[in-house]
Write a structure and sequence with these properties.
α2 packs antiparallel against α3. The protein is α+β, with helices and mostly antiparallel strands. It has one domain (31-161): Alpha-D-Glucose-1,6-Bisphosphate, Chain A, domain 4, CATH 3.30.530. The chain is globular. Helix content is 32%, strand content 34%. Strands 1, 2, 3, 4, 5, 6 and 7 form a seven-stranded antiparallel beta sheet that branches. It has helices at 2-24, 53-66, 147-161; strands at residues 33-35, 41-44, 71-75, 80-83, 96-108, 119-134, 137-146.
Amino acid sequence: MKTRRRVALGFTLMLAQSILFAADVPKPLKARFVGGDPVWREIPIRDNLRTSPEKCWQVAVSTILDNSFDIATMDKDSGYIRTTWNEGVVVLGGDWGYKVQISIKLVPIDSGAGAGTSLDKIRVQATGEISEIKRGVIRTFFRGYDQVLLQNLFQDLQAKLGSR
């Protein structure tokens, strides 16, 4: 009986938290922002591009730049790219701010000999942060991801590098 109460209480608290969260997020972001830990989406690399890590790298970099992001960090050897925070994706009024950062990771095929010379997949993430600042004090803060931007990047990279 106690277990049922705990489960019911937990469910009620989760529901209340989601309702409060939805009430606090500015309206222009309700359809695109997902609170919680940012997620990675994975795209298997097309067979004819698996042995062309240079081409895949260039496509990833150009895709980021084509989406109006600036690169903050990139390490070609590890296949990792991270952008600066972009505050222009959705501009909010008043005391609210929204910023997004993209991370991309080219993942090599995990096979002993020759690892790193062939790619298996590309991973994409679009981290988002919402903040409300009043009189220099953060009043509200949410971290999560931008599902619209993530989907757009995913589709763009899928068309250029993914399986057909």
